[in-house]
Write a structure and sequence with these properties.
Heat Shock Protein 90, binds adenosine-5'-triphosphate, MORC family CW-type zinc finger 3, four-stranded antiparallel sheet, binds magnesium ion, HATPase_C_sf, globular
Length: 158
């Protein structure tokens, strides 16, 4: 199990600031759809749902494309990392390394990303509520990854 907390040299309020580029919530949803469609993920299906978790309204976005490992989850929840390339003529939409952060933070105050890939499972959290609660003066992003090898022992011992 690999656990770490990404510390960005950015104030927590930047998450909101950056999200205001989406005047329309549908532009924010489009960022998440674009990411699933892009050639690195190449999802064939995409599901959007509305659900209640602990009396809070949540939107869930799920795709069946390629997942993330620890390193790519790190990049997804940071700013400015984007290394998408065209695959078989499928040209990527994303290029700035910003859309997920601006889009998700426009739709809600908190986002949790669950991902499964060949190497295991990974969870990352971008949460304005959490940062407010701990009085953070920098953006902190907790990431937990369970690799396939650890996964079997995790299941065995729990
Ligand atoms: N649904 C997803 N599945 C797997 N990886 C994803 C998914 N969404 C985003 N990513 C990864 O997270 C990275 C960051 O996404 P983000 O939307 O912030 O930037 P981008 O798509 O590279 O550029 P842009 O800002 O132009 O959208 C992507 O480059 C991609 O590697
Ligand atoms: Mg994008």
């Amino acid at each position: 199990i690999q656990t770490n907390c990404l510390l960005l040299q950015l104030a927590p309020k930047y998450l909101h600031t950056n999200s205001t580029s989406h005047t329309w919530p549908f532009g924010a949803i489009a960022e998440l759809i674009d990411n699933a469609y892009d050639p690195d993920v190449s999802a064939k299906q995409f599901w959007i749902n509305k659900t209640m978790i602990k009396e809070k309204l949540c939107l869930t976005f799920m795709d069946n494309g390629n997942g993330l490992d620890h390193e790519t989850m790190h990049k997804m929840l940071s700013f400015g990392y984007s290394d998408k390339t065209a695959k078989k003529g499928h040209v990527p939409i994303g290029m700035y390394g910003n859309g997920f952060k601006s889009g998700s933070m426009r739709l809600g105050k908190d986002a949790i990303v669950f991902s499964k890939s060949e190497s295991g499972m990974c969870i990352g959290m971008l949460s304005q509520t959490y940062l407010e609660l701990i009085g953070a003066d920098q953006i902190q992003v907790p990431i937990v990854c369970i690799t396939e090898r650890n996964l079997s022992s995790y299941i065995l011992f729990n």
